[in-house]
Amino acid sequence: MKRLSVCLLLCLAAQAATGPLLSVEELVDRSAIIVHGRVARSWAAWDGAHKYIWTHHEIEIVDPIRGAGFAPLVVSEPGGALDGVEMRFSGALPFALGEEAVVFLYRTPVGYWRTQGKYTVTSRNRVHANLRGASLTMREDLPLAEFKARVRDMLRRR
Question: Which of 19, 51, 93, 132 has the fewest CB atoms within 10 Å, counting from its CB?
């Protein structure tokens, strides 16, 4: 089985997780969709040009904070393993089956919803920042309800 490891910086949009440092306020401003959800399943697939592998995560919506309803949503991150090929991309945020998180999403040029910010919900019902390249203006380990209230307050003020 052929195995290929590729390390690339994929700059799909200015809002990418490896892009400029983003405050929570900027994440709110730049995200078309913000949801609190749970990962129901994940799978890897080639893009339409069969050039890059993307890992897709079906998110069951617990709370549609902005721009989404309760229908499951697919979040895609570049990279993954498929057909004996493994690709890794700087800035791709990992997701685990059953993981619960508040995610800040933008639409990529290829049409996928991609994460630019992710706050994992811990077993103690608190949020833990899981961001690469983002500055934190809210302290970590904030109660989930308080975090979502602050995000909603930011949305109301804009």
Answer: 51
